[in-house]
Every structure is written in structure tokens, then in C-alpha cells.
Amino acid sequence: MKVAICPGSFDPVTHGHIDIIKRAASIFDKVIVGVLVNVNKKPWFTIDERTDLLRKTVGDIPNVEVIGFDGLLVDFAAEHNANVIVKGLRAVSDFEYEFQMALTNSKLNDKIETVFLTTSSENLYLSSSIVKQVGLLGGDISPFVPECVHDEILSRINKMK
Ligand code: PNS
Q: What homologous superfamily is domain 3-160 in, according to CATH?
């Protein structure tokens, strides 16, 4: 059985992430969405909240499981018998950072391969940070995220005021 990990900070999940997870689920037997810590980002949502929002949005896909983890990605993958990491690539600007992570992960565990899926053209510009910024400034974020995520972002913004 081919098990792949779709890792990310998912703070919070957007339509861009969902597209990559669904496409990975159509390629691999099982996809584990790993909700992990990105030390370079200060999250709005806890790992449990992010995991919960992902379960609400992709939890109905039969071969997808959502799990939160706060260690190394390669350890998480090995623990779940996954030897493929799937990441979405948006623009050239993603490439250098993703390439660095892929090479580091392969140095840490050479049995794990990183595979990149190109983001669908309609999601090219989309990121969790942009969505949060638009929401903070009062813009309509409904085209970018599922309804439950939209509501959570707005309630978080209201609490900040
Ligand atoms: O959605 P993001 O923030 O681009 O995802 C980055 C993430 C969470 C996948 C990355 O930071 C990660 O793998 N974190 C887990 C800790 C780890 O393994 N770090 C070394 C990877 S080079």
C-alpha cells in the first residue's frame, strides 16, 4: 500500500490545500494530512484547532486521515509507514524553500521521497497568510476557504478587536 503524507501548517486550511489533498488522494492508496509546526510562523490556530478544521473539510474522503504532530516530518512519515511526502508548488517563489526542505528531509531519511504537485491555476495566489490578512482588513474571504474555516477566521478576528 502506498501511503503519502501531505504536510503543512494549515493555519488555516484553504481551498488550495484541499485541492492538493484531493489530488494526492486520487494518486496514493492512503493520504495522511500531517498538521505540523512551522517554526518560522506564528500560528493563529492551535494544532488541535487546525486538525479539527481539516477533519471537517477533508475528513469525508475515505482514504484521507488527518493527524497533528509536533516533531520532525520524516519521523512522522516513518511512524505512519509513509515513504512519500506530497507538497503543492505555487509559484517559483515557493521553489527554493521547498527544495531546501525536500533535500533536508532526504538527508534525514533517504527512504522518503518528496513529490511536488503543481497548484491549480485558480489557487496560484492563495495562501493562509494572505487569507488572514484580507480577513483582518475586512475583505471577503469566502472565495478562498470552506464555510467553517471562514467562520472560525472571522470569530478569531472579532476576538482580536
Ligand atoms: O504549510 P507550511 O508552513 O509551508 O509547512 C511547513 C512544514 C510544517 C511542512 C515544515 O515546517 C515541517 O516539515 N515542519 C516539521 C518540522 C520539520 O521536520 N522540520 C524540518 C523540515 S526541513
A: HUPs (3.40.50.620)
Backbone phi, psi, residue 154, to 5°: -65, -40
**pLDDT tens-place string over residues 68-84:** 999 999 999 999 999 99
* Ligand 1 pocket test target in 33, 42, 73, 93 with most atoms within 8 Å of CB: 73
* Contact present, 103 and 95 (Cβ < 8 Å): no
Cβ atoms 56, 45 nearer than 8 A: no
Place of cell 484580507: 134
pLDDT digits (tens, 9 = 90+) for 110-159: 999 999 999 999 998 999 999 999 999 999 999 999 999 999 999 999 99
Query: Catalytic site residue 128?
Result: yes
pLDDT at 54 over 90: yes
CB of 8 within 6 A of ligand 1: the answer is yes
Per DSSP, what are the bridge partners of residue 5? 32, 85
List the domain boundaries for the chain: 3-160
41 is catalytic: yes
- Of the residues 55, 90, 106, 156, only one is catalytic, namely 90
Is 156 assigned a catalytic role? Answer: no
Pocket of ligand 1 contains residue 78 by CB under 6 Å = no
